[in-house]
Amino acid sequence: MASLQKSVSSSLKGTLATSCLLLIALWAHNGAALPITSHCKLDESNFQTPYITNRTFMLANEASLADNNTDVRLIGGSLFQGVNVREQCYLMKQVLNFTLEEVLLPELGRFQPYMQQVVPFLVSLSHKLSSCHVMGDDQHIQRNVQTLKDTVKMLGENGKIKAIGEVYLLFRALRDSCV
Description:
The protein is an all-alpha fold. Helix content is about 65%, strand content about 0%. The protein contains eight helices and no strands. Helix 2 crosses helix 5 and helix 2 packs antiparallel against helix 7. It is globular, with a radius of gyration of 23 Å.
């Protein structure tokens, strides 16, 4: 009887260990599909450096002086419309990547010295958010981002200037959504 109990006990421990390993393997395999909050976070310290905060504000301020379209707001309430609070960091990641790729990097020679100081900071934030993904359908987010992209493209050169002029709003929205 003792031998049977040891056999059952060993078998149970083996099954339990195998189950735990299986759960760990499944968790690791689906790491990219963890809930939104797991990888969509930035450390608050990213936004507490007065120097970069000031430079971001100065860049936005300088570009705003060249912005002659005061009727359009890119980063505002309509951007977040229909987006769950838990999805807002992912939304801002998409806006950040668009702003970097389509606006800031192509215009790197403008608005110096602020541009050369702010762009590397924003690139580092983009890198930190690279593993931020949404589980499930993100069509509502992509629609909002596409509306922003279409507006910038429709405005042409003024759209780029407007996006640069709103870089401080981008900075604050990233902080508010991702910290």
